[in-house]
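Continuing the series of single-chain predictions for the mutant panel. This is the parent chain; the variants come on the following pages.
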Amino acid sequence: MTGPSLAALGGPFLAGRVATISGAARGIGLATARSLAAAGADLVLIDRDAASLDAAVAQVRADTGRDALGIALDVREEAAVADAAARAVDRFGAVHILVNNAGTAIRKPVIEFTLDEWRRVMDVNLTGAFLMCRHFVPPMRAAGWGRVIGVASVMGHVSSAGRGVYSATKHALLGLTKALAAELADDGITCTCVSPGFIATDFTAPLQASAAFQAELQANALLKRWGSADEIAQLITYLCSDAAAFITGSDVLIDGGWAAH
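Parent structure:
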């Protein structure tokens, strides 16, 4: 892990909170699960990959001692999302935090996309976030406290060839978050995004293996390195804390300086 830890916030500062994370079986989602659990939260972990999800639940329980409920589902399926929200409330009595992390990408020029490919990326990255909010925000309203955090991307601020559709979904997620912040402020719920740059996870494995992209990274990222999933997770955990209570309707770039020039 690079940089200081969240220990300065003191103790299990999320004790009594219940956090739901989509795309939780690996990468940024799993790192966020570990970080939130270490801060005292119990967890609802959601992913399509049931086997990897079971392993993630076992890992979080063993490493942190927190309770974790794993629910295998596709965030594009509203009935499954609604059932997951009901199960979460039944298990824990409340939901306080939602991290919309599930995502997918197809790297190709926009006009070469088929309509099915377009819908797949849009439905996972944007419709999935909408459905998770639609069903997990009401319990937050009932609790009178909440955090909704969207995992957007530096590609929600800039774009490049071959990343246009992914970029479009992330621009849209930023807009959705601003609207949610306005609609939910009176309910004690803040809504923010984090926009990672290029993070070394399974999701970016093809780029990590590309000499051409390594050269692009060196040319565009001021810090000239890949970010880590733990760095993103710590930022998300901070945004879930009471120390971040005055942050809403905004986005935090954590991109190594990619978008700075």
